Amino acid sequence: MLVLVLGSALLTSCKPKDSSDAAIGDAEKAYVAPGKYDEFYNFVSGGFSGQLSVYGLPSGRLFRVIPVFSVDPEKGWGYSEETKPMLNTSHGFVPWDDLHHTEMSQTNGEVDGRWVFGNANNTPRIARIDLKTFKTAEIIELPNSGGNHSSPFITENTEYVVAGTRFSVPADYSDGDVPINTYKQNFKGHISFVKVGKEGEMDLAFQIVTPGVNFDLSHAGKGKSHGWFFFSCYNTEQANTLLEVNASQKDKDFIMAVNWKKAEEYIKAGKGKKQAVKYVHNKWNEKTHSATSETKTEVLVLDAAALKDICYMIPCPKSPHGCDVDPSGEYIVGSGKLAALIPVFSFGKLMGAIKDKKFDGDYGGINVVKYEAALHGEVQKPGLGPLHTEFDGKGNAYTTFFVSSEVVKWDIKSLKVLDRVPTYYSVGHLCIPGGDSKKPFGKYLVAYNKITKDRYLPTGPELAQSAQIFDISGDKMKLILDFPTIGEPHYAQAAPADLIRNNGQLKFYKIGDNNHPFAAKGEKESKVTRQGNQVHVYMTSIRSHFGPDNIEGIKMGDEVYFHVTNLEQDWDVPHGFGIKGANTAELLIMPGETATLKWTPDRVGILPFYCTDFCSALHQEMQGYIRVSPAGSNVPLSFSLGTNLPAATK
Amino acid sequence: MHKLLLLITAMALFTSCGKKEKSENDFSKPETEEPTTSTDPSSYDPKRGEGKFDKVDLAATLDQTMATEGEKVAGVKCTSCHKTTDEKLVGPGWKGVTERRKPEWIMNFITNPDPMIDKDPEVQAQLEICLVRMPNQGLADTEARSILEYMRKNDGVK
C-alpha cells in the first residue's frame, strides 16, 4: 500500500510540467497551409454527444459533425419527418446515445473508404455511415444486449460487424423479471454477428450466448487469424453490485476467442436456435430522401457452452480492456487495465493449445486455454493502466496508459519498451491511420485524452476533452499539436484523404432521380393541398426565393407539412428553412433533396419563414409569410409567388 | 513585345500548374464535367463564350419535340429564376435571348456558367444588376440543346 502511495506520488511529480516548449520546433509538421488539404481524414467518435466528428490530420481542423445517434436540430436530424425513423428503436424514438467506437470498412484487411461504423453504447445499436455522402445510412438495433461496448469492429473483408454486450442481462427471450442477485443463473452475455452486404446493408445473422460477463472490446483476426474474433471480458466474477471492488477480485479475466467461421458452419447446419426477440432495422433511402424503420422479431442463437469448438477463453490479467491484433494477425494484445504488464498472445500457439487440448478446466462450459500455452510473452513494467494498442506496420506497438498518462512504444516481437511520451492527460484510445488493419500508414498517432485540466483557457466546471497528434515517423514520438474535440472521443479511425475524396463523393442529388413522394420538381409543381386538418405544402427553394412564399387559409388545429425541395443542382448550395414557433427544428436541404418539417400553428396571425443558410447576395430576401386563421374560418386555401395573391377576399 | 511574350509564357506556366492542381484535386466521378478553362482573359471570345460548344447548327424551323422537352427541363432547372417574358426575376427574362446571343454562347453559358461569369463583360454587367451568380444546374448536353430549342420557340421560331 505504501509502495502504491509512493508510486503515485512519484508519478504525480513526474507529471510533465509543460509541453509547450517541446512542441514549438515540431509545430510546422501539423501546419497545413490555407487552401491546402490534409493528408488524412480522421473519423472520431463523439462519445456522449452521440455523433461522429470528422477532422483532418495533421492539422486537427474540424470538417464536419455527422449526426448519428443523437438528434441534431442544426441539420434537422431526428426532427424532419424523413429522419425520425432513423432514431426509432424497440423502445420507441430515442433522441440520444453514446457513440464510443468507429471502425472503417476494409477489403483484404485494408481500409477501403466505403463506410465507417459506429456503436450506440446505451440503447444497443450499430450505425453505418456512408462516406460518399457523410450521412448515416443505416442503424440496426441489437437484442439481448445491454451496453453495446465491444463494437463495431469488423472482419477483414467487412463480412461482419460485431457487437458484444457490456452489461450482461437476462435474454430478451427469457423472463427478465428476476432478482438482480441471481446474476449467475439468469444473466447472459450475447455476442452479435451482423452480416454486411455488398452495398453495406446490415443483417443480424446470429448471436452467440455465453455465461454472464462484461464484454469490453474486440478485434477481428486478420491474415492467418482471419476467421477468428477476440473479445476482452471482465467481471468474470459475475458481480452485480459494487463492481469496482467485486469485479476486480480475480488475477485474470479472459479474452474470448471466437471461431466465427465455425459458427457460420453451425448456423448452416441448423444449430442456431430461433429465439423470439424484438429489434428494429432503420434504413435511409437515397432516392426518396427518407428513412424506414422495420421491426424484426427473430434471431438465431448459438450456445457457446453446448457447441464446444466456437469459443475459447484465454486467461488475461486483469480486467482486460483493449483487445488488439497486430497487422500480421499473429499477436493479440490484451490490455489488463488493472495489470502492471501487457500480455501478448500468439495466434499460432493458441491454435496449438486448442489442438493439443491444453485446457485449464472450463468457464461456464467454455474451455479455458492454459495461459502460458497461448502466451507469446509479457511487456514488463510498461506503465500503469494500459488501455489500447495500435500498430505502425513496422513491428512496433503503441499502448496508451490511462493512469500514468502516457503512450508507450514497444517492439512486438522482443516486447522491449522503446519510447514513451506523456499525454495531457489520462489518455484513453489512440489512433494511427490504418492502425488496426493489415496496412497501417504510420506517420501520425493521435491520443484521445479524457482530461484537459490546465491545458486550455478555463470554461467553467466542464472542460473539453482533447486529441494530441504525435509524429511517429522517427524513433521517438514527437508531440506536434493538440486540440479540443467534441463530446468525449473514444476510438477513432483514419485513412488517407485520397481514399475518401476519390471514392465518388456525392456533390448534389440529381433532381431527376428525386423520388420523394412530396417532391416539387420545379416551381410549376409547387402547391398547397389539404386533407382534413393536414396541409401539405409542396415548396421549392432556389436562390433566392421559396415557391410559394405567400400561403393563406391555414387554420388553428391544422398540421402543416412543409415539404421543401432544393432545386439547386450545384455543389455546396444547401438552403435552410425555419418558421416562427416551430417546436421541432430547422431543415437544411441539400441541392436536389426534399425534406419535410411538421409545423403546428399555435396562434392566429401572420408567421414568417426564411432561409437559414446564407445562400446568395439576396439571401436576406429569401423569406415568406403564412397566414393562420381561427378554426372554422372561411379564408380559402391559397398560395402564390410574386403575384401578390390572392386578391383581397375581405 | 518581349514583356507580352513573357506574360504569355508565365500564363501558360500558370495554366499548366493550375491543371495539374486540378487533376490532383479531382474527385473520381464528378456529377458535372467541368470543361478545362483557360485563365488567359485575352483568349476569351465574347461571341462564342467559353465551354465545349464551338458551333451549334440551328435548323430554319423549330424542332417541336425538342422544344417541348426543353420546356420540361427548364421547368425543373431554370424557370424558378427566369421568366419567359423580358421581365427580370432572379436572372434576366428570356425573351429575345436567341436574337441577342449566338447559340454556342447560350449552350456554353448554361453548361459552363462559372468561368463565363468571371470573364464575359456583359455577364459581369448583368451580375451587377442581379447579384446572384447563375448556378451550374448540371445540365446534360442534350438537356442544354433542348432548352435552347425552347428558347427559340419562346422567341417565335416556328
Automatic annotation (TrEMBL), chain A:
Q: What is its main location?
A: other
Keywords tagged on the record: Copper, Metal-binding
Entry's PROSITE patterns?
A: COX2
Task: Give one Pfam family, short name only.
Answer: nos_propeller
A GO cellular component term found in this entry reads: cell envelope
Q: Which domain of life is it from?
A: Bacteria
Protein name (Swiss-Prot/TrEMBL): Nitrous-oxide reductase
Automatic annotation (TrEMBL), chain B:
Where is the sequence biased in composition, kind Low complexity? Answer: 35-44
**Keyword Metal-binding listed:** yes
Q: Where are the transmembrane segments?
A: none
Residues spanning the signal sequence: none
The alphabetical list of record keywords is: Heme, Iron, Metal-binding
Can you name this protein? Cytochrome c
Per the database record, which ranges form the Cytochrome c domain? Answer: 44-155
Segments of this protein annotated with the region Disordered: 20-51
Pfam families (UniProt xref):
Cytochrom_C
Write one Gene Ontology MF term.
electron transfer activity
Q: Where is the composition biased (Basic and acidic residues)?
A: 20-32
Q: Which InterPro entries match?
A: Cyt_c-like_dom (IPR009056), Cyt_c-like_dom_sf (IPR036909)
- On whether Iron is a keyword of this UniProt record, the answer is yes
